[in-house]
């Protein structure tokens, strides 16, 4: 690709990404710190991917998702997952109308642009799987009728760590459909001081202004697709993913007994898509290897199956990925 094309693309991306600053400024009025979490939510929004947030209670996971949905002038619904929840409570059901002597469709809360699946691992697998068709196909089937979901459509799920009581681990087929799995940590002392002050003053309860229309998000998605990715970067992504499947071929034989299965093709696809979205957020028209490295953990940590040996040695997916990133040659 010629440099003149890159320069023109940079200018176009710079103009198309202008709304990002407005969105960040508005959400920052409510959310203190947690820049990584907010960036990942924006990446999911721009690359048509769903986001799973994992962290202990009280770390603003639900508040962040609600704030982002309010800053984008779009439909928002929240589903509180509980052990007694039914699939029909999510997607909707057929209701009999005695006056007309027929059935009509009553749509569930899945019919929104932003769907917050709060504490998704509190409900059993049959309820979790009710989201699968919506997340993958962007459609919902109720009875014999199929309804397309309105774009932008984004499932933002939260979960507490699985070690806690009363939780149901997400099946591999379900968790693989999340583009990103983001782990949330505690704020630092200065951030928590500001959080405390905002709660004491009532500033945290201020109404969020919608600063972006859904049409702007859809236009931005088209711009994200235009972000240039060199073949060397594409090969770099494949090397990372293939190293999780066959680590011995990449000079990492010590990882072979620790991995049951590596990243699926969704890992390669999503790593490329998120790298483009991240470059867009940086107001840049091309992807660099650091973009891939920056997002590797969030895209890959839930797509690697560790062996019993790894669990016995307290090896985490992050440990495996760090070793791969340190070993695979960067273009």
CATH homologous superfamily descriptor of the largest domain: P-loop containing nucleotide triphosphate hydrolases
Compute the average pLDDT: 85
Strand order of the largest sheet: 2-5-8-1-9
Total count of domains: 2
Shape: globular
CATH architecture of the largest domain: 3-Layer(aba) Sandwich
Number of discrete helical segments: 15
Poorly predicted spans: none
Can you describe this structure?
By secondary structure, the protein is α/β, with parallel strands linked by helices. The protein has 2 domains: 199 residues, Rossmann fold; 100 residues, Helicase, Ruva Protein, domain 3 (Orthogonal Bundle), CATH 1.10.8. The chain has a 5-stranded parallel β-sheet. Strand 6 and strand 7 form a beta hairpin. The chain is globular, with a radius of gyration of 21 Å.
Characterize this entry briefly.
This protein has 331 residues and is an alpha/beta fold.
Features:
single chain, 331 residues, alpha/beta, Rossmann fold, Helicase, Ruva Protein, domain 3, 2 domains, five-stranded parallel sheet, two-stranded antiparallel ribbon, 15 helices, 11 strands, 46% helix
Topology record:
Elements (H helix, E strand, L loop, with lengths): L2 H14 L1 H11 L6 H12 L3 E5 L6 H11 L4 E5 L7 H4 E6 L4 E6 L6 E5 L6 H4 L3 H6 L1 E4 L2 E4 L5 E6 L12 H4 L2 E6 L5 H13 L12 H13 L4 H15 L13 E3 L3 H17 L7 H12 L4 E2 L1 H5 L4 H11 L4
Parallel strand pairs: 1-8, 1-9, 2-5, 5-8
Antiparallel strand pairs: 3-4, 6-7, 10-11
Helix pairs in contact: 1-10, 3-12, 10-12, 11-12, 12-13, 13-15
């Amino acid at each position: 690709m010629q440099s003149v094309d890159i320069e023109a693309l940079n200018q176009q991306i710079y103009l198309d990404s202008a709304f990002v600053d407005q969105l960040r400024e508005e959400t920052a009025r409510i959310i203190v710190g947690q820049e990584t979490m907010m960036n990942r939510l924006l990446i999911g929004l721009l690359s048509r991917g769903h986001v799973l947030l994992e962290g202990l209670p009280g770390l603003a996971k639900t508040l962040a998702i609600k704030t982002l949905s309010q800053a984008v002038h779009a439909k928002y619904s929240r589903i509180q997952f509980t052990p007694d929840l039914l699939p029909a409570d999510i997607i909707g059901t057929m209701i009999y109308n005695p006056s007309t002597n027929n059935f009509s469709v009553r749509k569930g809360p899945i019919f929104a642009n932003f769907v917050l699946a709060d504490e998704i691992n509190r409900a059993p697998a049959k309820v979790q799987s009710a989201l699968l068709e919506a997340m993958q196909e962007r459609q919902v089937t109720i009875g014999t009728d199929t309804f397309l979901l309105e774009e932008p459509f984004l499932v933002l799920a939260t979960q507490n760590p699985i070690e806690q009581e009363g939780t149901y681990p997400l099946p591999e087929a379900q968790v693989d459909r999340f583009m990103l799995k983001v782990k949330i940590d505690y704020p630092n002392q200065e951030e928590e001081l500001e959080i405390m002050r905002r709660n004491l003053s009532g500033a945290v309860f201020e109404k969020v202004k919608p600063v972006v229309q859904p049409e702007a998000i859809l236009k931005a998605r088209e711009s994200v697709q235009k972000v240039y990715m060199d073949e060397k970067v594409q090969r770099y992504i494949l090397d990372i993913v293939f190293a999780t499947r066959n680590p011995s071929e990449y000079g990492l034989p010590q990882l072979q007994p620790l991995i049951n299965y590596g990243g699926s093709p969704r890992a390669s696809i999503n790593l490329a898509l998120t790298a483009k979205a991240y470059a867009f957020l940086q107001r840049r028209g091309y992807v660099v290897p650091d973009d891939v490295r920056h997002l590797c953990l969030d895209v890959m940590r839930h797509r690697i199956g560790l062996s019993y040996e790894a669990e016995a040695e307290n090896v985490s997916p992050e440990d495996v990925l760090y070793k791969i990133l340190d070993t695979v040659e960067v273009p």
